[in-house]
Amino acid sequence: xxxxxxxxxxxxxxxxxxxxxxxxxxxxxxxxLNNYKDFIDQPKFRKEKGRRYGFTFQxxxxxxxxxxxxxxxxxxxxxxxxxxxxxxxxxxxxxxxFAPPNIEGFERSSNIxxxxxxxxxxxSFK
Length: 126
Prior knowledge:
By secondary structure, the chain is mainly alpha-helical.
């Protein structure tokens, strides 16, 4: 985890140094992303059979890297500066289902269940 944190801080700081939106700036940001993703995708960081610790591709690590990259990609666009724009996951309904104990219960009350995901939003990475 220490290695990932150190590489993350380096990735973050290098992205924050880029303040333009030229094609060259975007290419630099994409290269930084690819280097960081290649680093965290190393086998030694994967949770695999027989290994107690590590990350899977379903872990939040990979999703948050992409979310944070979007911030770095869009942060310097003039039309977006000064706007209150959230980057990251949104609070969303993931499903709706009916859960009556039996058909008679369904006739009395639908027992609607709405599952809602709550995610932490980060306003700024500075």
